[in-house]
Design goal:
This protein has about 270 residues and is mostly helical. It has one domain. About 65% of the residues lie in helices and about 0% in strands. The chain is built from 11 helices and no strands. Helix 5 (about 125-150) packs across helix 9 (about 205-220) and helix 8 packs antiparallel against helix 9. The two termini are about 20 Å apart.
Length: about 270
């Protein structure tokens, strides 16, 4: 029995926890994100990070139980040559890598005081807001460059992620580790570099920028929100940006010709 057999259901079969589909699951996912960042890692360090990993696993399991889209994506992944074990391994590495980055930024570079300062209005100076906005703008450029590179130059690294034709809350974990390093590692590294080179180790700028970037990247895959990034998956368009809906040159995209859509009888 393959690991994901239990979550592959017919399109007309109700999901076990279908009542939580949509807004309820979305709210639960936001609670998990906030609890991990503001409570577990911030207050309990390494032990909190381990507990946060447990919450992340629970969130992914819940995602597979509230919607049939997760199982649909597994069918597409299998049809394109990705075994369940390879997908599970990629999800595990993405979860571990993301949590490691959370610990580095939230606990070590920013620290508990910086998290507490987010509640103080005095932390939000014009300089702070300028720093955050510049960080976001620069991270958008880095993300766009990496995302475009994956679509046009190394599509085989990005194929696993785009087999998720119906994105869900866990889709950001279903990526080749090299894809994650390029597409998400780039913006993360940029924020850390700016922390030392531009902002004189201003923890508030770093924390606000990092939390917004990581939070927003997870939001884009929630099917209930139906963001324009969802269309990037369903239609395989050439919009490589995150914050603005700016299409690139679709003629140079190589994912569309690489990805194989399963015949209808496999989706029944």
């Amino acid at each position: 029995m393959a690991p994901f057999d239990v979550v592959v259901r017919g399109p007309k079969a109700p999901a076990p926890l279908a009542r939580l589909h949509g807004l309820p699951y979305f709210v639960i996912a936001q609670i998990i994100f906030a609890t991990n960042a503001f409570v577990l890692i911030n207050w309990y360090g390494a032990l909190g990070a381990v507990a946060g990993l447990g919450l992340g696993v629970m969130g992914s399991v819940l995602d597979a139980l509230v919607s049939n889209s997760f199982g649909y994506n597994i069918i597409v992944l299998r049809y394109n040559g990705f075994s369940d074990w390879s997908v599970l391994g990629a999800m595990t590495l993405a979860l571990l890598g993301g949590q490691l980055m959370n610990v580095i930024v939230i606990e070590h570079l920013a620290g508990p005081m910086a998290v507490a300062d987010l509640l103080a209005t005095s932390s939000y100076t014009p300089w702070t807001l300028f720093g955050v906005l510049l960080n976001l703008g620069m991270s958008e450029v880095v993300f766009y460059t990496g995302h475009q590179f994956l679509h046009e130059t190394c599509p085989e690294l990005h194929l696993m992620h785009h087999c998720c034709l119906r994105p869900t809350g866990s889709t950001n974990l279903i990526s080749d580790p090299r894809d994650v390093a390029i597409e998400l590692g780039g913006p993360g590294a940029l924020l850390i570099m700016n922390h030392f080179l531009l902002w004189e180790e201003d923890a508030t700028i770093l924390l606000l920028s990092y939390l917004f970037v990581t939070w927003y990247y997870t939001l884009t895959h929630h099917e209930w929100l139906a963001t324009y990034h969802i269309k990037h998956h369903t239609r395989l368009n050439a919009v490589y940006t995150v914050y603005i809906n700016q299409p690139g040159d679709a003629r140079r995209d190589r994912i569309r010709s690489l990805l194989k859509r399963p015949p209808k009888h496999l989706l029944q």
